[in-house]
Amino acid sequence: MKRNSTFLNFPGRVTVTALTAGLAVLLAGCTQGPQIKVAPIARIQNVSAQKIPLHVGLMLDRCYCTNSFKYNDGIGDTMIFDFGPVLQQHTISLCQQTFDQVAVSTNGVVPGGMDAVLTPEAHRYGFAIGAGGGRGYFTVLQQWTLRSADNQNLLWMTTVSGQADEGVDKLFQLLFDDLATKSYRAFQESPEIKLLITKKSGTAL
Amino acid sequence: MRLRFQSNAVIQFRHVAQIEHRSSVTNRAIRKDSMQKKRKLLKLIISAAFLVLAGTGCGTLTIPQYTTGPSKQARTVESQGLTITAEPILDKERADTYFKVNPTYRGIGIIHLQAENKSADATWLLAEENMYLHVAATNCDMNAHNQKVKGDYSGAQASFAAAIVMEIVFIPLAVPGIFMTMKAASDASVIEKNFVDKEWHNQTLSPGQSAQGFIYFNLDKQPKWANSAILRIDCPNITNQQTNTFTIPLTYETK
Q: Do A75 and B236 touch (CB under 8 A)?
């Protein structure tokens, strides 16, 4: 009579091996990353009651509105994070809370009658997984370029680093909150934007 | 006689039964002993695997911010009130502390930049698109823009392959194997993200402002790039649209 195995018997071993092989096959390939669920309005910390008194044309190109980040975990799985639609929505919301008037352009045509033209760019993404697997770490480098009203001359440029580390459920909300707050602060502190305001008020006088 | 024969048969039967019983007891004891030995061996192997796992560390890898000031290797140039200090990270100690990589082995050129605008009225643009590394040995010009540094996931891949083999050979070992894979993949992703965290931020520098960050170059086939390299940075003055070009020689004796 065959003795019982201390561990798993032969059919058990075969089952587990088959499951592992199946898992490996499933893992190898592209999968949609977790859905990016955030509040529809950009949440800015310590937002000022007074907006920056400028009329700004916001240029959102196709690349920005549809951009995604692909993360390869090195063992055959690629996760795709569709940031474009959320970035578009949040950028519009952020600018509307920051500037007096915002004209959004998604077709490349520069809006007329503006004081300056602002163009965002998702410059770089960084993503890391916690050792336990339950926590995510995200960095988004968002570049802001302010040009003259005809979108020709560069006036100001900055890069904001939005960061968050949390479980998947709160990760993206924190990331976009950080991005919005840091971008807002950069607009408020920009010497070139202050100069533009001074010039505009001087012209108005 | 008949009775005697019967009693002899009974005695013989009893004797055989006793022997069989003894043999069965002995077998059970041997089996029990074998199982105990296997359990001990299993415990030993799992403990060893977990010790290995504990040795590698279970928490998420943390990499400190770069706080070190310029060393003797740093090169500073100044023009029209804009000062730029460039310093390649060539020593293994700093590379390991702040990037957890061996740059020569990985074929990455890591250069720390510091810029300060001391001019009274000029605003300078410092963007990766305008930064070039010229390696004389290969007569190659590389742009710092889009030089994304990929993480090294070979450790995770090896652990994953080992975990699968362990599972097939000896199932309980697969558990620490999977944990080791997760840890290795996590470490690689943290190292990759760290390059983004420390990257130079494209920006304009107004009078009195300063900035610092790293630029990277993928130099797979040029491990001794720093023997004869020149960093060129074109900085447009956005006030008058004139470009201030900085040429910084990065030439060091590397082994």
A: no
